[in-house]
# Entry
Amino acid sequence: MREPDFHRMRRLPPYVFAEVNEMKAAARAAGRDVIDLGMGNPDGATPQHIVDKLTETVRNPKTHRYSSSRGIPGLRRALAGYYDRRFGVGLDPEREICVTLGSKEGLANLAQAITAPGDTILVPNPSYPIHAFGFIIAGAGIRHIPVGPGVDFTREIARATQHSVPPPTAIVLNFPSNPTAQVVDRAFYEEIVAFARRHEIWLLSDIAYSEIFFSDPPPSILEVDGGRDVAVEFSSLSKTYSMPGWRIGFAAGNGHLIKALTRIKSYLDYGAFTPIQVAATAALNGPQDCVDEIRERYRARRDVLIEGLNAAGWPVPSPPATMFAWAPVPAGFRDMGSLDFAKLLLEEANVAVSPGVGFGEHGDGFVRLALVENRHRLRQAVRNIKGFLARHGNRTATTALAAERAAEVSP
# Structure
């Protein structure tokens, strides 16, 4: 029998990151020392008091039964407590919070709950793949909204809303952003909430990196007057507490959206293993100095990487938040695109990065570097990249000179 051509699979393009991952695996199989700055997979251990609570709870056989798909009551109360402490927002744990198997699962399931085939969803580009593909899998039409330096995002949203048929059902937001590390202030949320209320559009905000910040703490859209009328917010314990494999996240906000998510999850899962939820409760209710330590670890790594790359001749902006740097492809390599540049960097410098095109076509001039190696390894990555750039110095200089001459003769 020939390979079946399933309808939903036809809507999913080839996974761009797979090419780099295959090359990375082959290089390691050949004995090469690859420094992996590609996948955003935290390398630090989960804080000990959280692990201790897990092991304590798992010894109780009563916790081995089915759990609750919407989350155990104690964890939902702990999440409400977090919102009160961090954002000054009072949430009802019964109506306005749902525990998810990570923010990715929550976004995808809400997409299934609220989307009908043919609906229009506005999604930033570049963005984390599930932001678009969760809705594509659900049958929606996606309108990509460019986001990044020099882009007036709210203006782009207004224009897309005006020209979308049918009108948008929802707008996806992600600040601090993966992959660009862009942050927004409360005034942005005030403007976008007012816009959404006027046009009766849902706002789905992903703040998975809200605790990995290096200047002012990022706000929540639920802080804004009227935010809970139109918005739901997704987050995760993965980065905040270095718990990526635990798969614990949550949705908070508008009661109608939470009810829809809770209902569809009741058909699909029984929730995370109860001991994991109890340990997550201990994370949120327990000492928070571990969060500060994790944040400072990423800050130190960011400074080593950014200072090193700039000194090596690759100008990369310092990210104000997240565990990523969004790096413009160096001038001499821009003609090849982000995927081929990422492959060349892996082949010649033994450094793996994520090609920006994997996050959308507007990301093709960039690569994403994850701060998931220690400072010693990051310094080694910088040395490798410095040597790589030096070997291609003529190419870089020639491309820069050609650009200067083109600018001189342009009208």
Observations:
- The two ends are 60 Å apart (CA to CA).
- Residues 7-45+290-409 form a domain with the Aspartate Aminotransferase, domain 1 fold (CATH 3.90.1150.10).
